[in-house]
Amino acid sequence: MEVSSVGIDVILDHDHKEPPRCAHGPTLLFEKTVKQKGSQRYFSCSAFRDRKLCNFYQPEERKVSKEVAASREEHYKTIGPKYSHEEFYQRLQQVKQYISTDRVFCKTCSLLLLKDEVKEHKVSHNIQENITDLSLKCFPTSLLDPIENNKSYAQYLFSRETVKFTVKMLQDLGYTKVLCIGAPRIHEAIISESLPDTVNMKSLLLDLDHRYEQFFGPQQFCWYNMFNHHFLDGSVAHKLYESFLESESSRIAIVTDPPYGGRVEVLTHTLKKINKTWQNKDTSTDIPIFWFFPYFMEPRLIESLPRLTMLDYRVNYDNHDQFSRGEKGRKQGSPVRIFTNVSPEKVVLPEPDYRFCPICKRYVAVDNLHCDFCDSCTSKDGRTYVHCFKCQRCVKPSRVHCDKCGRCEFQDHKCGKVWTEGCHICGDLDHKRHNCPNKSGIINRNKRKLPTNDISSNTSSNKKQRRMRSKKQKFKGHQSKGNRRNPKLSIS
Description:
Main location: cytoplasm
Low-confidence stretches: 441-461, 471-492
Shape: globular
Structural class: alpha+beta
Protein name: CTCHY-type domain-containing protein
Subcellular location: Cytoplasm
Keywords: Cytoplasm, Metal-binding, Methyltransferase, Nucleus, Transferase, Zinc, Zinc-finger
Helix content: 10-25%
InterPro entries: DNA_methylase_N6_adenine_CS, Mlase_EEF1AKMT1/ZCCHC4, ZCCHC4, Znf_CTCHY, Znf_CTCHY_sf
Strand order of the largest sheet: 13-12-11-10-14-15-17-16
């Protein structure tokens, strides 16, 4: 059976000045394209791809009253953090006064506990006791369980080796301030001064995980959604971010480790906004970026930010089997690399795993050999590539050239499979599906009521509506059988 749904695109340039908001800030406008039917536009959550985690959905053409929008905002307040950032910080100061044996962290609630709260949590919750000064002040990632859901937070934490390399790289390049977007362990290493020469460095962490509010003060952390550039704690946090960018701006860099399932074009849109804020400080240069992402996403990143280049450094994580050096790791090592707009020649990669290529003028993996025909060190995945003279480029060693397909493929591949990088609707290579002239008109689904996912469209409300429809059908059935009811009776 052929799947009719082609795909979903995000529309960043639209006429909506104030898109509707979900619990994670302004939503994004998406367009779902369906073969032979056209497309439909709707607003949905920018951060979470799973409707079970954030069920906001509103067709583009649907208008919502100010009253409904206000009721949504009130509802969002009830599902947010239990305490404000300032209240979390005050609790932290109290816990700091306790001796380490009296400090308790509830892993079930992800909450530092005051003394009078411990007894209640100990009954059925997972408790961690004896919290050291170092964990409390500088290393909350040692206490907080990572939220590894790939459709939401996708929290994978850098290994100590990766942290040491990244911080040293930033130091060697002369940066004194680092804006960490979803990179908590880099932030921890800088503010803890646990690594050499970090005493003169400053860091600000922007992250969607509000749990960090109880460990980092208002000057060190902002509750932030990188997919819509929204500060969930309001204008105070936004002003702190602007102040951090503007002071000593010439020696600042961005380190970002976003979820790999996140849309590249959306993340790029956010980075461009940050760059614009930074350039308001009378500078025409781009803010230095170090973006951690899988190597196979390189074409999409370069398409969005052409000035980025990929470094060969393999980024390892502590809590991801495939992205680590462990026994369960990939044979070629982690597929995650660093993409940067800084000249690759300036970034020194450590021996003995890396070497300097004098022809390419950059550091590469030792297995990444220079190809005289391509005039480049061509390997992407950690293996030594081989040159195919028919394709006129280097390919992975697991590929062989297929004359029938006209390209290099796996030896046991099926010939005739068509790969296209262009439009999924008409097949042309000069445009994408959302710009296809053959795309049909907008799917009109206004004939049936679509949910807006406000307060009145939660699960219990939907069940109630189904019961009401069932009663209405029964009522009509009784009328057809001559069992007349009160004509003034209405079922809503």
